[in-house]
Amino acid sequence: MNKKYAGAAAFGLAAALVLTGCGSGSGGEGGGGDAAAGGQVTLKMVAADYGDGPTAANSGDKFWKSVVDEFQAANPNIKVDVQVINWNDIDKQVATMVQNGQAPDILQTGDYSGFVQDGLLYKVNEVLSPATQSDLLEKFADFGKVDGTGYGIPFVSSARALFYNKDLFTKAGIAEPPKTWDELKADAEKLKASGVSQPFGLPLGAEEAQAESFLWFMGNGGGYKDASGNWAIDSPQNVETFNFLKGLVDAGLTTPNPGTKDRKVVWEDFGAGKVGMVNGGPMSIPIFEKGGLKNFGVVPIPGKTGPLSTTLGVQDWIMAFNKNGHAAEIKKFFDFFYSGDAAQRISDTYKLLPVTKSGIEKLSSDQNLKPFLDALPNATFYPFTDPKWSEVNTQIKQTIGGAVTGDPAQVLGAIQKTAAG
Amino acid sequence: MQHESPLTRVGRALVPLAWVGPAVALIGVVVVWPVVVMIQSSFLEISRFGVVRGSNGVDNYAKLFAEPDFGGVMVRSLVWVVAVVALTVLISLALAQLFNQRFPLRNVARWALIAPWAASVLMTAIIFKWMLDPEVGFVNMVLHDLGLLDAMGGAGADPLGNASTAFPWLIFVAVFVSVPFTTYALLAGLSTIPADVYEAARMDGASRARIYWSITLPMLRPALTVAMLINVMNVFNNFPIIWAMTHGQPGYSTATSTIFMFILKGSDIGESAAMSVVNFGMVVVLVIVFLKVSRWKSEVA
Q1: Which residues pair with A44 in a beta bridge?
Q2: Cβ contact (<8 Å) for A118 and B47?
Q3: Which domains does chain B have, with CATH numbers?
Q4: What is the CATH number of domain A16-158+314-382?
Q5: What number of H helices and E strands is found in chain A?
Q6: Assigned superfamily of A161-310+393-420
Q7: Within 10 A of A58 (CB to CB), how many other CB atoms are there?
Q8: Given an 8 Å threshold on Cβ–Cβ distance, is B251 in contact with A259?
Q9: Any chain A CB within 8 A of the CB of B144?
């Protein structure tokens, strides 16, 4: 009897331990770097993967390991644990970490603004030396500020331009790449007549519909917001833009059912020689070359009456969380990153553009990147500091493709309602 | 035993805990705890970045029910479950009957059926997506070669780009991955039916259809009930097939409630949790209704 009693008690205790263990695991304080014996500090870092996944030669894991190894050799007291997460999951996984009180010390991803409001981030001047700060491109650094105080540090950037397949253009008898919408449509018709199945690659699917749409809006003087900073997604210019696109789609001059196609697939089709023209960036060049396409040209994106004088600039961010109080160590790591050759290696490996003046100088001789480097200083950005942007962005990605099959005014109007309502 | 002390009695009452304890602990941690957190979250205001900003009352639910696509998503989820489970069971009944016969290489055929079950569902979905690719998809190439498709790369070669053709394909893939398990469950059921019952029926001169209807189906009911129940829950919560093949697009026109929940997570975690709770409730209701219906049947029979 006694033995059984003891057994039961042991099981009950074990069960209780399991339960409480789980409770503290999900609700407890963020672990990260306890300054253990010997003054050793561990920085927990989460970064997005710019490569082709964990097994690829250019995986983010390998890139960061090489950076961290160098850094740790120079700073034996600081250990950096890097967790690389792919772009599709990083936002949701980081949100889970934050929700469970396990935010990292350093985060490198596509947005910083959401953390500022809740006071989770160090200010830029707490974690970055003045020399590094002054090397950052002003226009980019300015976008890292909320109410005049910097929180987000520009990490890498990219810009967009129009890529066209020179062989297909020659075959269709087109001498010059298009500069206006009318020329673009005429060229697309010629490409179609010469047997090209997708004259214009139009990815309006979930992956990056917000970029493709924005590039087209710009061509007609539109955008997500008007000059005074109010949401203007269903402005007459934008509706006209999508009416034009709808015309292209109806005539079979684009990717079929654009609202379901991701940019990666369309870029691969361009690389395979199935697409005549497509909007892309430096990061799409490796995809094109992997598909076997070498003979392509890069020009500014056509607008309604002439080429765009601006382009979509996208920049990614790195930021430091203040929860574990490791400002001094984080500062060392950031300065190491920006002053060494790590930042340039990112540009080389992933064809992303630098965000520092010294970085742009180093790349200025690369002819393939020149159109993009020229466009950077005049780039236009998403309105991502607006608190409504994440919700608007989600809805754009899912639904804006419907504007080329249904009624553009109605589809854009529904998104505008989310933004302004 | 009259002089048993109260302590001993308590002790004896606790003994069963030693046996059920681990299971209860496991269920508590793996099932009950997440449900509690899910329900809690659905009443909180949580930023997209995971910061809890305090209670939000029933606003998350109000916002969810006001979503213009909510109604369509729920109706589609029901159509999805009913269509996939009904087709799966019908096909599996036939296949189980076939595989219960003796024929050469029966074991090979039985093993082959396991393949779609053994492969990852996500992998299967991605392979079907590739096969339906407008430029290089295998299915489209075959249709093109047969002259059923005018040209590659156009809208005609893009069944996944349009809800009216995409949804049947999604249902097809879901049935494809559900059939093996269901067939095996029914096959196990068939093998429990004693041969002498059939012999007796044949002696009485019953037709084949009559034997199937009056003997096989009623005796198969326990296996059939379990197989259908598991399918209903699996299919309702199925995420990878739709996510990998269409992302719920165009618009939300191929999204079911789990897809909708995941998309909402990108903009509003609280609203997404509310969708999870609705989803959870829906599964519970479906299961209760199903059990009610199947028991009612057994009383009539």
Answers
A1: A81
A2: yes
A3: 61-300 (1.10.3720.10)
A4: 3.40.190.10
A5: 19, 11
A6: Periplasmic binding protein-like II (3.40.190.10)
A7: 14
A8: yes
A9: no
> Can you give the pLDDT at residue B206?
85
Q: Domain limits of chain A? A: 16-158+314-382, 161-310+393-420
> Is B164 near chain A, with CB under 8 Å?
no
| Look-up of token digits 């989310």 | A418
Which residue do the tokens 């770097």 mark?
A: A33
- Interchain proximity B49–A5, CB inside 8 Å: no
Could you give the CA distance from residue A201 to residue B44 in angstroms, rounded to a whole number? 42
pTM for the whole thing? 0.80
pLDDT digits (tens, 9 = 90+) for B97-117: 998 888 888 888 888 888 888
Residue B46: in which H helix or E strand, if any? Answer: strand B44-46
Could you tell me which of A206, A211, A233 has the C-alpha nearest to residue A222?
A: A233
Task: Confirm or reject contact between A146 and chain B (CB < 8 A).
Answer: no
Global ipTM? 0.80
Could you tell me if B152 and A273 are in contact, meaning their C-beta atoms sit under 8 angstroms apart?
A: no
Inspect the interface and report whether the beta carbons of B18 and A11 lie closer than 8 Å. yes
Distances (CA, A) of B204 to B194, B210, B301: 17, 11, 20
Burial class from Cβ neighbours inside 10 Å (0-12, 13-18, 19+) for residue B41 reads: buried
Written as six digits, the tokens of A218 are 């710009």
CB A268 within 8 A of CB A211: no
